[in-house]
Amino acid sequence: MKKVLVIGCPGSGKSTFARYLHDVSELPLYYLDMIWHKEDKTTYTQEEFDVALDKILDKDAWIIDGNYSRTLDKRLDRADTVYFLDLDLDVCLSSIISRLNKKRPDMPWVEEEIDEEFMDFIRDFPISQRPKILDALNRHDHIKDITFKTRAEVNEYIKERRYG
């Protein structure tokens, strides 16, 4: 395991899980949100994002946290392991609300209020994004794919690796 993707619905716990993987593996960790978003809540251009992503993908080892479906196939082509946090929508929505007003290492700003457009994206995720992820995973059968359906499964996976 040297080139790892952590994907799933916003609020599923991708970044927290990616930090755990980073801590136990010492692989470098990259958050796609940090190479897409600027501190002033604007975004870099697709070209700037792609250049930054390509520099990461060219490295010998990495953990990449984030979906960004436009570049998912490119990342899957280079990955050897994928963790898909396929958690219930209500869990994801609740997590988004719970992280308001908290500084996070995976975002360049602190969310202070609910972004309804973002919440709509999350509500639509099981219909609009999840099938694309599953299809992409099926097309990339060279990858070790580990899917979690609940936080309990994630926590058990972490516990097993910490305490053997």
Brief write-up:
The chain is built from eight helices and five strands; from the N terminus they run βαβααβαβαααβα.
Please count the beta strands (DSSP E, at least 2 residues each): 5
Determine the strand fraction and express it as a percent band.
5-15%
Largest sheet: 5 strands, parallel
* Helix-strand topology string: EHEHHEHEHHHEH
CATH homology superfamily name = P-loop containing nucleotide triphosphate hydrolases
Number of domains: 1
Rg is 15 Å
Q: Would you tell me which CATH topology applies? A: Rossmann fold
> What distance separates the N and C termini?
18 Å
By CATH, the architecture is named 3-Layer(aba) Sandwich
Task: Compute the average pLDDT.
Answer: 96
How many individual helices? 8
Q: Helices, strands, pairings?
A:
Blueprint: E1 3-8, H1 14-25, E2 29-31, H2 32-36, H3 46-57, E3 62-65, H4 72-78, E4 81-85, H5 89-98, H6 116-128, H7 130-139, E5 144-148, H8 151-163
Parallel strand pairs: 1-3, 1-4, 2-3, 4-5
Helix pairs in contact: 5-6
What this model shows, in words?
This protein is an alpha/beta fold and 164 residues long. Helices cover 50% and strands 14% of the residues. A five-stranded parallel sheet has the order 2-3-1-4-5, with helices on both faces. The longest helix has 13 residues, at 116-128.
